[in-house]
Design brief:
Layout lengths: L1 E6 L9 E5 L10 E7 L2 E11 L14 E7 L3 H14 L3 H8 L15 E5 L10 H13 L1 E3 H8 L1 H9 L3 E5 L20 H9 L5 E6 L5 H14 L3 E5 L7 H11 L3 E4 L5 H12 L5 E4 L11 E7 L16 H11 L4 E5 L4 H9 L3 E5 L10 E6 H6 L8 H12 L3 E5 L9 E3 L16 E3 L4 E3 L6 E3 L12 E3 L4 H11 L4 E5 L9 H10 L4 E5 L12 E6 L13 H13 L10 E6 L5 H7 L3 H15 L5 E10 L2 H21 L4 E14 L2 E11 L3 H12 L6 E6 L6
Parallel strand pairs: 9-14, 9-15, 10-12, 10-13, 11-12, 13-14, 16-26, 17-24, 17-25, 23-24, 25-26
Antiparallel strand pairs: 1-2, 1-4, 3-4, 3-5, 6-7, 6-8, 18-22, 19-20, 20-21, 27-29, 27-30, 28-29
Bound molecules: adenosine-5'-diphosphate (ADP) and zinc ion (2 copies).
Length: about 725
């Protein structure tokens, strides 16, 4: 027999299938990892296929040395998924396969997935030699069986080995319990309302459903009921939530409901913990995978449901190698398992909603909050008017007076500002010099607390400017406000109130996140200042006011998606207010109070916003009505990228000629972010009509194959064009 093997080395040159002989009697299956001779080294590889015949003469082929584990770490579905992802994202096979198994299993580390146990072959055996051996026999008579690792720890390896060689004990792999889960599920006695129940009843079969429910409409409860149903059918489920929504509160809710049937994959886990969760899923001990993006690769078969909560979130798109979009992977898995895919959101992406309008997705709606509460009133405050009336501070008079009354009533407020640090940049007032990162060509952010300038792209830190390095001036100006500055200004206004800050800087330590939230929960009155992190998932009943300090910040980006993102953010943040008996209010500060995005957001008119946005995109020929393809070239040496790109672009122009009616736009340029982590970035942007888009994509890709020195990334409708 012969095996097709992919070598576990992530290089362009090895991105192909190699054939090896399977020695007679060696139990090799598809999906197994194997040790193979390669050149004069021994490397690990993945068996992706087995055949009886080989095209190559067998004397030319080498033989597999041994399996890495005696089971297939890559299940058949995942091999198919690899093929799908290869084709769709033009990725190397190895980089895809690596997504499917935890890092702990790779890098030459051999890990026991199945635990070994020991028992006596004859329970009445008596032995008289070797102190440890006698102890082991005594122990096993008492305990009947014990984990191999534990016995090894207690009595040592050699005694166990010699007992095994004398057939006094046997070492066996524990049986995996794959029987479907039939135990009681704690439904916490929450009875779904009619709308929720209808949603649960509608979601079945093998369609894709868009669950559009306002914040607080009980979507999470719907997911939980769907998952319970899946478990009762003896099947498994995957549920994705954005990393920042994996709050302790959310995790606790899931654990309370599903106990140890659930495996949670989040970034707070160590490599070892991650491996343990993977193993529980792989062995069928856990039946529900809940986690951020990468949980879509959970090693579960027999899926009965795939759920993507907050489906519009940008974090579902992997923007670094390997680049993929979670929706398509989820869709593949749902189709493979013939189960429903549920995309849930209060503010679906324009792309998804458009599919629902066209009938490609089935639309399920939850238009009201469960407790009958009104959504909080959003008041738009014109900051130009504030300046005209003499207030040049970062808070409007309205926000200050609303904060004062929250404090009087011993309630809570959240203040949202989507920029961490103190101020966005430091600039010389005299010559215009702006402090930038040496490696990234982006301006540095001032962090007052650490008294440092930091690069938010690579993390490098620099000394704060006292004088301008360019002209020596001491007149240094700070840029737009960040979380630190908002906190320090609030402290001046309300010195006796507890004010907490939540952003990447205050939550980098383990459990810091939970601690801040815990502290806020009991701070009455209290104010929580934060970035996107506070925008979702939190359920604080005493929050009666939400302030959005600088709403325009997400509105004016060069990106066609920035209005959509702005709308989403306002809706999400507003959803934090008035979740319980007290009415909530939102103060939205802007310099463009008449922008349509704010009008629709203030009326919670998602459909109105969608229609407007759909119109604009159709007229301007942007996705979802066209496809944007970005081909990004990066290299440390600017000349290398430029030269390769030049050659390549001439070939791309031929494709443009061929499809002159379909390609609306094609141009080559420096990326807006010219340099990142010491690599120069150039890109080709193509916009084309949809009908021949696949074909065009394929041909464009073909023309980039000769660029071997630069790293080339291919992206479709990129989330981020910088
Ligand atoms: P969403 O995810 O749509 O924002 P959640 O699922 O978080 O909404 O629900 C908001 C709150 O309402 C939660 O505290 C939840 O426990 C509660 N809830 C959901 N459904 C019901 C129901 N049918 N009856 C009572 N409370 C409910
Ligand atoms: Zn200067
Ligand atoms: Zn940098």
């Amino acid at each position: 027999m012969f095996a097709s093997v992919i070598i576990d080395q992530d290089t362009k040159a090895l991105d192909k299938v190699f054939e090896y002989i399977i020695p007679d009697g060696m139990p090799i299956e598809k999906g197994m990892r194997v040790f193979v001779p390669f050149g004069n080294r021994i490397l690990q590889g993945f068996v992706i296929d087995k055949q009886y015949k080989s095209e190559y003469p067998s004397e030319k082929l080498k033989a597999i040395i041994s399996p890495v584990e005696d089971f297939s770490a890559i299940k058949p579905e995942m091999l198919e998924l690899m093929n799908f992802m290869c084709k769709k994202y033009h990725l190397r096979m190895t980089s895809i396969l690596r997504l499917f198994i935890p890092a702990e299993m790779r890098e030459g580390k051999v890990k026991e997935v199945f635990e070994k146990s020991c028992r006596l072959t004859d329970e009445n055996v008596e032995i008289s030699r070797g102190k440890n051996q006698i102890e082991i026999v005594k122990y096993l008579k008492e305990h009947k069986e014990e984990k191999y690792e534990k016995l090894k720890e207690l009595f040592g390896y050699s005694s166990l080995k010699s007992l095994e060689s004398k057939h006094i004990i046997e070492i066996y792999k524990n049986q995996i319990n794959r029987s479907p889960y039939v135990g009681e599920i704690n439904d916490k006695k929450i009875k779904l309302n009619d709308l929720q129940q209808r949603a649960v009843d509608t979601i079945k079969g093998d369609d894709t459903f868009l669950l559009h429910g306002v914040t607080g409409s009980g979507k999470t409860e719907v997911y939980m009921h769907l998952i319970s149903r899946v478990l009762k059918q003896g099947k498994n489920a995957i549920m994705l939530v954005p990393e920042i929504s994996l709050t302790p509160q959310v995790l606790a809710n899931f654990r309370a409901r599903f106990g140890d049937k659930i495996a949670i994959l989040h970034s707070g886990l160590s490599a070892g913990e991650r491996f343990d969760e993977w193993k529980r899923l792989f062995l069928g001990e856990a039946k529900i995978a809940v986690g951020a993006r990468s949980a879509i690769f959970a090693p579960l078969d027999n899926l009965g449901m795939v759920i993507i909560d907050e489906e519009h979130e940008q974090s579902y798109i992997s923007e670094s190698n390997p680049r993929y979009d979670t929706h398509s992977v989820a869709m593949f898995r749902a189709k493979y398992n013939r189960c429903p895919l549920v995309l849930g959101s209060a503010t679906p992406s324009v792309e998804s909603y458009e599919k629902a309008v066209r009938g490609e997705y089935k639309l399920v709606e939850l238009p009201v909050r469960v407790n009958g509460r009104e959504l909080p009133k959003i008041q738009i405050v014109d900051m130009m008017m504030e300046i005209r009336s003499g207030n040049s501070g970062i808070f409007s008079n309205q926000l200050i007076s609303d904060l004062a009354s929250v404090i009087n009533n011993k309630k809570q407020a959240m203040i949202f500002i989507n920029r961490r640090g103190y101020s966005s940049f430091m600039m010389c007032r005299d010559c215009g010099y702006v402090a930038k990162c040496k490696d990234c060509d982006v301006s540095l952010v001032y962090h007052k607390e650490d008294n440092k300038l930091k690069c938010h792209y690579c993390g490098k830190q620099y000394k704060v400017l006292d004088v301008c390095p360019n002209c020596g001036s001491e007149r240094i100006k700070e840029g737009a406000v960040g979380t630190e500055k908002v906190v320090s200004e609030l402290k001046k206004l309300f010195p006796d109130v507890k004010i907490l800050r939540m952003d990447n800087d205050t939550t980098s330590k383990k459990n810091a996140h939970a601690k801040i939230l815990e502290e806020f929960r009991s701070a009455k009155p209290g104010i929580l200042v934060g970035t996107q992190m506070i925008a979702k998932g939190h359920d604080f009943e005493d929050v009666t006011l939400v302030g959005i300090v600088d709403a325009d910040q997400s509105l004016y980006h060069s990106d066609y998606r920035s209005t959509e993102r702005c709308f989403q953010l306002i809706t999400q943040v507003s959803g934090r207010a008035g979740r319980s008996k007290d009415e909530g209010k939102v103060v939205l500060q802007t310099y463009s109070p008449r922008h349509y995005t704010y009008k629709f957001a203030a009326n919670y008119d998602y459909k109105g916003f969608f229609r407007k946005e759909e119109n604009i995109r159709a007229t301007a020929k942007f996705p979802p009505f066209t496809r944007i393809i970005r081909i990004l070239f990066t290299h440390q040496d600017e000349n290398v990228v430029k030269d390769e790109l030049k050659v390549c672009y001439n070939k791309l122009l031929k494709v443009k000629e061929k499809y002159q009616d379909e390609i609306i736009y094609m141009d080559v340029m420096k990326s807006p972010l010219k340099r990142l982590q010491n690599k120069f970035r150039y890109q080709v942007i193509v916009r084309c009509k949809l009908d021949k888009a696949d074909q065009i994509e394929e041909e464009l890709l073909e023309q980039t194959k000769d660029a071997v020195k630069s790293s080339v990334f291919f992206e479709v409708n990129p989330q981020n064009m910088s």
